[in-house]
Amino acid sequence: MYHELTLTTARTDGGGIRRHGCALPAEPPAAGMARRLTREKLCRWGLECHADLAELLVSELVTNAVRYGGGPVELLLEERSGRLRCAVGDRRAELPHLAPCDQDSEGGRGLHLVDTLADDWGVDRDASGGKTVWFELTPPPLPLPA
């Protein structure tokens, strides 16, 4: 079970910032819930171009938060002018790091995927002592006129 919150904030330039947040349980099914919510929200927002990649990267971050974060996991999706920001927060203060990947290992690739596939990513500490790992995806370039 999760709790959802959807916000739309008007900008002064007439555009809008769309946000959708939810709290997920710190249990293995949270990754699947996050994938479904991400795809559903992006399709509703007309951002199908980001759905597959965002779904994969959100799943990796939520899996890490469940495995290492301790406590509930928060997912926030935010869209502004086609630019998508996905953020996953947990209660653990320790910051993640890119560890060397062993080719034979079954895990340890989540942050490497984010680092390789996202247009930008980072980690922010929060006031409660936890952290939020986020990534951004930019809209694909518009096709050139024929």
Automatic annotation (TrEMBL):
Domain called Histidine kinase/HSP90-like ATPase: residue spans? 25-135
Keywords of the record: Kinase, Serine/threonine-protein kinase, Transferase
- In which domain of life is the source organism classified? Bacteria
A GO molecular function held by the record: protein serine/threonine kinase activity
- Gene3D superfamilies the record matches: Histidine kinase-like ATPase, C-terminal domain
Against InterPro entries, the record matches this protein to: Anti-sigma-factor_SerPK, HATPase_C_sf, HATPase_dom
PANTHER family according to UniProt: ANTI-SIGMA-F FACTOR RSBW, ANTI-SIGMA-F FACTOR RSBW-RELATED
The identity of this protein, by name, is Anti-sigma regulatory factor (Ser/Thr protein kinase)
